[in-house]
Amino acid sequence: MARLLAESFAALAAELPESHERVSARLAGRAVAIRVDGERFVVEADGGAPQVRAAGADEEVAAAVRVATSRRAILDVLDARRSLAEAVLADEVEVVGALERLVEAREALLAYVHGAVRCPSFPALLERFRRLAP
Questions:
Q1: Handedness of CA 23, 26, 29, 31 (dihedral sign)
Q2: Could you tell me the CA-to-CA distances from 69 to 17, 90, 130 in Å, in that order?
Q3: pTM for the full model?
């Protein structure tokens, strides 16, 4: 999962640099700890492009924003079976952080999605993600 996300950032940088810059700017100086089906990683953009790396439990706790979900929940949102808000309310996506950091993370996510839908490489990345889902 982390590797696929890193590849998506690289594709966004190569194919839609303006979108990549928007994502980077919204993540600047903020660590987002993500747990998907037990895989733990951190996304951060300290002074540049978003970087994805494996993370331990201590880094997860120290992150400005923490997200925990499953591949299935992500696909349910991507395939419009439920909204992100519905997934959060159903405890399928857990997001923790100070309100200001959550708003910034949401803005980064929106910038990422706006770029993703326009990025030529993303359909193939999404197909690879689908093959990961249980």
A1: negative
A2: 28, 11, 15
A3: 0.90
Burial (CB < 10 A; 0-12, 13-18, 19+), residue 70, is middle
Query: Contact, 119 vs 16, CB < 8 A?
Result: yes
- Residues 21-73 have pLDDT tens digits of 999 998 888 889 999 998 999 998 877 789 999 987 677 767 889 999 999 99
The pair phi, psi for residue 63, each rounded to 5°, is: -65, 150
Measured CA to CA in angstroms, residue 44 lies from 9, 26, 64, 90 at distances of: 12, 10, 10, 27
- Residues 110, 32, 76: CA angle, nearest 5 degrees: 50
**What is the distance between the alpha carbons of residues 125 and 30, in angstroms, rounded to a whole number?**
25
